[in-house]
Each structure stands twice: as C-alpha cells, then as structure tokens.
From TrEMBL:
<dbReference type="GO" id="GO:0005524">
    <property type="term" value="F:ATP binding"/>
</dbReference>
<keyword id="KW-0547">Nucleotide-binding</keyword>
<comment type="similarity">
    <text>Belongs to the ABC transporter superfamily.</text>
</comment>
<dbReference type="InterPro" id="IPR027417">
    <property type="entry name" value="P-loop_NTPase"/>
</dbReference>
<keyword id="KW-0536">Nodulation</keyword>
<dbReference type="InterPro" id="IPR003593">
    <property type="entry name" value="AAA+_ATPase"/>
</dbReference>
<keyword id="KW-0067">ATP-binding</keyword>
<dbReference type="Pfam" id="PF00005">
    <property type="entry name" value="ABC_tran"/>
</dbReference>
<protein>
    <submittedName>
        <fullName>ABC transporter ATP-binding protein</fullName>
    </submittedName>
</protein>
<feature type="domain" description="ABC transporter">
    <location>
        <begin position="2"/>
        <end position="231"/>
    </location>
</feature>
<dbReference type="InterPro" id="IPR050763">
    <property type="entry name" value="ABC_transporter_ATP-binding"/>
</dbReference>
<dbReference type="InterPro" id="IPR003439">
    <property type="entry name" value="ABC_transporter-like_ATP-bd"/>
</dbReference>
<keyword id="KW-0813">Transport</keyword>
Length: 311
C-alpha cells in the first residue's frame, strides 16, 4: 500500500527526515512512534503530498506521491495534527463543502456526508456550528473529513492529542472500528494506544527510522526479554554464585529478603533466552524451596526507551 524509499526532508541545513525507507502492506495498522521533533509529522506530510521531499521517493497504492499526486491522494484520507476547520460553518455544511473540494459528484455528496456522519457518531451535532463543538467532536469532524471519498488508507497524526480520557477512549474505539477495512498509519505518543490498536510499529528518532516490526518481535528482541525473577529460601550467596555461572546469565541482582527469609533475585540473561527451567532445577538440587518464578514480558515502552535513548 505504501512504499517509501530513502525519503528525506531538509529545512535549510536541518535534516528533519533522513533516508526513511519502509513498506506498509494493505490492511496493516501501523503505530508511528517517536519523541517530540523526531520527524513524524514531516514524514506524514510528505506521504500525503503536503510537503515535497528533498530527495527519495514514495508511492501510495502504486502512485508516486510527487509524479502522480492526484491519484495517490485518491487513496488516502488525512487527519492532520491540527485540524483546520471552518468555525463558522455547521458540521454537515462543512463536510458537504469538503466533499465538493474532493471532487465527489453532486449526486453522491449527500449520501457520502450522511455515511461519514454516521461512521463518526456526529449525528447529535450535525446541525451545530463547528466553533461550539468540544475538542472530541472537532476531532471526529476531522476524521469524517478524512473518510470522505472512501479512501482505503488513513493517515492520522496524533488523533487523540489534547483529548480527555473519555474522548480518547471514544476516538480509539472509532479507529479500531475503521481498522477492520482500512490500512491505517497512526502517529502517537501514547504507547498503550499502539499496543491496543496496531499490528506493526515504526519507531523514528532524530529523523532516522530505528525499527519497523510487529510489537511482539520488537519486545522479543529486547534486552529485558531475558529477565526472570524468583523467590526462594536458602543459601543466598551460594545460589547467587551458581545462577551467575549458568549459561546465558549476565547478572544476578538481589532485590531483597523478607522477614520470613524469602529472597527475591532478578536474573538478567541474554535476550530471547528463558532460564526459568534451569534456575528451578538448580534450586531443587540445592534443596531450596521455590515460592515464585516468572519471566518478564518487555513492554513497548521499554522498546521505545531503548531505541530512542540518547546515552
Ligand atoms: N517548516 C519547518 N521549518 C523548519 N523546521 C521544521 C519545519 N517543520 C518541522 N521542522 C523541524 O523538523 C523536526 C521534525 O519535526 P516534526 O514536526 O516532523 O516532528 P514530530 O516527530 O512530528 O514531533 P511532535 O511529536 O512534537 O509533533 C523538528 O525539529 C522541527 O522543529
């Protein structure tokens, strides 16, 4: 659906996006993650044809975004970070105006507007002036606008930014519903949002793509992926020594000992290894009762921090 090849953008001497290459297949729901100023909006604006790349190419549904922007745009709906709505228009009036601008035939304008009004839950405010709408409803109007013309690709730039928790939940539900029959790129700071909605993650930092993979592959390859914690009773220094000598183990950390003599140890091992079975066997051999053992599941937040840390 999207192929970006060495896409770059310079503002004067500043390189906001550097040789970004990625592919997004039809039906994928992609979380586009990065710290402030990483180059997310710039990349999305290039894909949507609002900003010409300094170098590199990209295509949407096979149409080059520079050479064939009109055909490329027919396939995409764009919700920008700041939705430029006309405050002095009523909701349906605005959407009709937008539908006309998008070249929807006059016969199709009303059915198209009715459809997106229903899809985005705008019926209660359809006759209201845009200036009187809450931020959540304004965002829905932006989303309805993006959906006009039935594009198969949606590019949503921080769709829940600035909304309250209830509004966030509603917009998220709306996006989840749209995910059933659209390809979606979602730029966001909210990692839980990506975990809940997306089946692919692209991480960008300082203009460079750092990773593009499924959330489970990203977390599996992380340092934290090899970490286990266990609680046992017995000889702390002997067990620590034996655990440290075990294959794949890098470090053993004593987290504490409670009043009943239960020690808690965290064992850091190589990513992708699972040392639980060997550790449990070792404790049994030493005659140490084992109360609890578990392997840490790394979160997307840990992946994000690891990929974008400055040290
Ligand atoms: N028109 C412009 N002129 C000069 N610099 C720009 C312009 N647009 C963006 N930049 C710079 O390019 C960098 C990337 O900006 P961009 O808006 O793409 O980041 P972002 O990842 O979307 O950040 P945020 O999460 O804060 O929205 C920033 O350092 C920004 O200041």
């Amino acid at each position: 659906m999207i192929h970006a090849d060495q896409l770059s953008k310079e503002f004067g001497r500043f390189q906001a996006v550097k040789n970004a290459s990625f592919t997004i297949e039809k039906g994928e729901i992609v979380g586009f993650l990065g710290p402030n100023g990483a180059g997310k909006t710039t990349t999305l604006r290039m894909l949507t044809g609002y900003l010409p790349p300094t170098s590199g190419t990209a295509s949407i549904a096979g149409f080059d975004i520079v050479k064939d922007p009109l055909n490329a745009r027919k396939h995409l709906g764009y919700l920008p970070e700041h939705v430029p709505l006309y405050d002095d228009q009523r909701v349906t009036e605005y959407l009709k105006f937008r539908a006309r601008l998008k070249g929807i035939s006059s016969k199709q304008i009303w059915p198209s507007v009715s459809k997106v009004v229903e899809q985005c839950g705008l019926d209660p405010v359809r006759r209201k002036m845009i200036r009187t709408l809450s931020k959540g409803y304004r965002q829905r109007v932006g989303l309805a606008d993006a959906l006009l013309g039935e594009p198969d690709l949606l590019i949503l730039d921080e769709p829940t930014n600035g909304l309250d928790p209830n509004q966030i939940r509603q917009i998220r539900e709306l996006i989840k519903g749209l995910a059933e029959n659209h390809t979606i790129i979602l730029s966001t700071h909210i990692l839980s949002e990506v975990e809940m909605i997306c089946n692919k993650v692209i991480i960008i930092d300082q203009g460079t793509i750092k990773a593009a993979d499924t959330p489970s592959n990203l977390t599996a390859n992380l340092r934290a992926a090899g970490k286990i914690t266990l609680e046992f009773r017995g000889d702390l220094s002997l067990v620590t020594e034996k655990l440290e000598a075990m294959e794949h183990v890098k470090k053993v950390i004593h987290e504490g000992t409670d009043a009943d003599g239960w020690h808690t140890l965290t064992v850091r091992a190589e990513a992708g290894t699972d040392t639980r079975e060997k550790a449990a066997r070792l404790l049994a051999e030493q005659g140490c009762p084992l109360r609890h053992i578990y392997r840490h599941t790394p979160t997307l937040e840990e992946v994000f921090v690891e990929m974008t840390r400055k040290d």
